[in-house]
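Let's do one together. I've listed all components of the complex below, 1104 residues spread over two lines.
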Amino acid sequence: MSISKDARQIVESAVQGVMAKAIALAPDGWIPGGEPDPLIRSRHGHVGKPVSRLDGPLKVSGTAPFAAEFPMQGMVYAALVFGTVPKGRIAAIDTEQAESSPGVLSVMTYRNAPRIAPPPVFMSGPKAAGGDNLPVMQDDAIHWNGEPVAVVLAETQEQADHASSLVHVRYQSEPAQTHFAKAKAAGTRTATFMGQPLHNEIGDAEAALVRAPVSVDVRYSTPRHNHNAIELHAVTAAWTGDELRIHDASQLVAHEAWSIAQMFGIPEDKVVVTSPFVGGGFGGKCLWQHQVLAAMAAKASGRPVRLVLSREGVYRVVGGRSLTEQRVALGADREGLLKALIHTGVTAKTASNAMPEPFIMATRSAYASETISLDVQAVELDMLANTFMRAPGESVGTFALECAMDELASALDIDPIELRVRNEPKNEPISGLPFSSRNIVEAWRTGAAKFGWDKRSSVPCSTRDGEWLVGMGCAAGTYPYYRMPGGAARITLTHDGQAIIDIAAHEMGMGTSTAQTQVAADRLGLSMDAVVFRYGDSTLPGVVLAGGSQQTAAIGAAVSAAHHSLVKALLKIVGNDSPLAGLKPDEVASGDAGLCKLGDPALHETYVSILARAGQTSVTVTAEAPAPLETQHWSMHSHAAMFCEVRVNSVTGEPRVSRFLGSFDCGRILNPKTAASQFRGGIIMGLGLALMEETQFDERTGRVMNPSLSEYHVPVHMDVPEIDVIWTDIADPHTPMGARGIGEIGITGTGAAVANAIYNATGKRIRDLPITLDKLL
Amino acid sequence: MTPFTYSRAADTAEAVRRGTIPQARYLGGGTNLVDLMREEIERPDTLVDVTGLSHEIEELPGGGLRIGAGVRNTAVAEHRSVRSRYPALSRAIVSGASAQIRNMATVGGNLLQRTRCAYFYDEAGQCNKRSPGKGCDALEGFNRNHAILGASPACVAVHPSDMCVALVALDASVHLRGSAGVRHIPLTELHRLPGDQPHVETVLDPGELITAIELPPQPFAARSTYRKVRDRSSYAFALVSVAAALQIEDGHIRDVRIALGGVAHRPWRASRAEEVLRGGPVGAIAFAAAADAELADARPLSDNGFKIELARRTIIAVLGNLAGETA
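Okay, and this is what the predicted structure of the assembly comes out as:
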C-alpha cells in the first residue's frame, strides 16, 4: 500500500465520519410528500443512547430547588380553610379568633380578598389554563364540597395551620346534585371534547350486532381517581410593584402566566412563572385555586406567600379523573372479524369546565369493523371540576374495550392476540386517514415471545400453585400523537461554541431536559457538554404544554425551526473567506461543531470560527414551530401490547400481579433509560387503576372521604413485580425525530391486561374497577 | 395542631401525676396521636412523654414475658423469645404499618390506636366518637372496612391494630397504674364495644397509664401464627386478620386460641369458635363449624358483607395450616 493511497483512505474515512454525523436541516413541516427528519437516519449520535438524567446529581443531593423551597425575604406561610357543604352560601364567617392567634398576619376571605376575574378555563383560548371557570374567593357562593373559604397567613406554617382551625364558618346549604344515578335519571347530554362531539357512527352497529353469529355485550365501570404526585402542589408568590413572580410546580408555565395576568387584569409580561423541577405532574399540575389564592394573599398582605397544599388539600382543590359507566358490544363472524363495534357510556363532569372523560378515544383507531357506534354521554354534578389524569379517556376506555375483546376471544375460542391481529385496520376506521406508522402486530409478536405467551392455557382456572390460582392476560394499549400549536424556541450560539436552548417547557421528572439536550446536540452537531437546555420559565419562548404526551414533539419541532433560523443567520455572517461562502441554507448541514456543505463535508467551518471571523460574541435566533399539520394528514398513535401474569388467592381472593411486560411501538426512542422509566411508571399507575385506586366520593354530601395516601391506595413496592419493557424503535417518518409520546401510554391497556389475567386465573370476569378481593371471593 | 406543653416524665409516678390532669395525653411514639393532633381530632394541652419509661422485655419465672409499654414495636417483633415462643405476635407486628412507623411506635400506644374510619377523621362528617350524640355517617356511608361483630347503631368502626389481635389470642394482660394505684387486667377487658358510648374506647380511668403487657407461658403458642388479609401487599389495614394457636394431641384438639382483627371495635377473641373446637376432632369440617359458630352473630353493613365469608375462609385456612404444621 503506497503512502499516498494510505493517506487518501484516512482522508476518505475522515470525510465519511463527518458525513455520518452531519445532520441536514429538518423539513419545515411534516406533510405528505415531505422529507422525514434527518435525525431519524442518524444512528451514531446522542439520540438513542441511555444517557443518565443530567439533573440526577442535583436531585439525589437535594439541591434541585422545588416550588416550596425558593427562599424569599419576609415570606409568610398560608393555610387554607376548606368548605364542608357541596353547594350554598357562606352565611357567616368568623375570623376573629384566628386573627388573634399567635403569629397570624391576616385571614383572607371573600369579604376582603382582592377583586379579580375568574380563571380562563382550559381550552377556551390558546393560553387558557384554568381547571374551571369559577370565581376564586370573590363572593359567598360555594360550588363544591371542599372549596377554599379562607386563607390564613402566619409567620410559620404551624401557626397558619393551627389558626386555620379557628376560622368558624356557617353555611346556608342549597340543593346540590351529587348523585350520579339521580343525575343520569334526570337526563344526559352528548359530551364534547376539544370542540368535537364524542360521537361517531359508521353503519348501523346495533343491527349488525344482532345479526352477528358471535357477540358479547357487556358493561364496565371505573371509579373516580385523584392525583397523587409525590410532590404536593406548592407555590411561592411575590409581588414587586406591579410585577408578580410565582415559583410553582407547573406543567404549563406560559399558559399559567397569561391566565393569571388575565385574572388580575395586568399585562402578560408582568407575571413570571418559573418551575425548574416538578415532582410529578400527570395532568394535575395545572392552574387551580392555590396559585391564585397565594398571589391574592401576597398582594393583599404585601408579603411573599408560600402555600403548600396538604395531601387533603390536593384532594379538595385539584381535580381528578371522573367516573365512567361503559357498554362495549362486539359482534363478529366465526373467524373473529368484527361486524359491529359499539362503545358507549356515561361520565360525570361539572358545569364549570369542558372535560368529560373521553373514554371512546382509543376505540376510534383500534380495530377494523364493518359498523361502529361510539358515544359519550355526560351529566353535570356539583363537585370539584374533574380534569386530565394520565391518559384521560384511554386509560379507562381501553379497560372496557380490551376486556371486551378478551371476552369475545373466549366466546370465539380464538387466541386473544390472534383476534386482535385479525382485526387490524388498514386505515383509521373513523377518519379514514392512513396511519403514520403502526407496528402493533410486531409489538404483539415480540412481546408474546419474550413473555412466554405460548405457555398460557386458554382454559381458565387451570394453573394452581398451592392456594394461588395463576393466569395470564393481555391487552392493547394506545395513545395518540399530539403536537399542539404554539411551540417556539430560542437558540443562542456563543463564541466559545456553546448553544443555549431556551423554551418554556417543563421537566416533571420524565427526563425531558436530558433527552432534549441529546436531540439538540445532534441537531446542531455539538457534544452534549456544549448544549445548555433552559426551560421552566414563562419568559422563555413558546407556549408548550407538558401534557397529552406532546411535549417532546413540540420542543423537537420548535428547536428544529430555530435551527433553520440559526443556519440562515450564520450563513449571513460567514463572509467570503469561509468555506461556506455563497451556500444557501438547504445546501448545508450541521456537524462537527459547525456547518458543512451537504454532500461535501470537507467544506466545513466551526461555529467558533464563524463567530470569530464575524467578530461576534454570540448569535441569537428565535423561531416558531410549524403548524402541526401532520395530524391532519395521518392518524397518529403510539401502541403497546401489554402482558400480565397474576396470582389470585383461592382462599382470600387477594389478587397480586407477579409478572408484567409492555411491548411498545412509540416511534424512535430518544433515551432508552428515561423512556423505560416512563413506561414502567405508567404501567405501575395502571396496576393501581386495575387493583386499588378509588376516590371515595360520598354522594350524600359530595365530599371526598379518603383524601390521604393511607386510605386512597396506590401500589406499594410489594405490589409491583419486575416489569419488562421492550420497544420496536421503528421511527415514525412523520414526526420530529421520528418519536411519538411515551408518557401516558403505559397506563393504557394495563388495567385490561390485569383483568384478563384474573379471568384466566379464576374464570371470573370482574368488570368494575378496582378489582378488589371481595369481588373475587 | 393546637399548641400544647410537652414534658418527659422521669418515672411512672411522675407521669401519672402529670397525666391525670384534664386534657393531658401520654405520648408514646406519636405515630397515631400526633397525626390526630395534626387533624385537630385530638387537642390535648399537655403531652407527657412516657417513652423513656418501661422499655424492658423481661423473662418471667415460669416462662412468661413482661413487655414494658415503652418498648418499640420493632423491638418486640425482633425479640428472640417472642419469635420462638409467640411467633403470632412477631408476625402480627411486622404485617402492620411500615418499618419506620414500627421503629417509632410503642407497645402501649399500639393498644390505644384509634379507628381509621373516614368519618372519624373528617371534620365535616358526623361521628359519635368525635362528637357524642351527633350520629354516625358510616352507617349509610363508606363502611367496607367496618365492623361485622359487636357493632352498635352508634358506631360501626373497627380497631385497627394487628399487634393487639395476636396479644388477645395469646391471653395477654395489661399492667396499669393510675392515681388510685396499680391493677392488672386481661387485655380482652381493656377495649370496650361501642354500645351507646363509642367515644369511651377503653376501661382506663382518666390518667391511668399502661405500664406493661404480660404474656403468660403457653407452650403451644410456639406454633401460633397470624394471617392478615388486605387490599394491597403492605401498608394497608386488615380487612380481616386471624391470630391462632392450636394444640393437637392424639388426633384431637386439646387446646386452641383464636382472635380476629378488622371485624370489631376491639380485637375480637373468638371464644365461641374455641369452645366448638376444644376437645373435638381436627379437620376442615370442625374448623368450618367453629368459624360458623363465631360468625353466627355477624351482621353486614352495606359494603362489608364480604367480610363474613372472608373471615370464615381465613379462620378455616389458618387452622388448617396450623393443623398441617403440627400433624
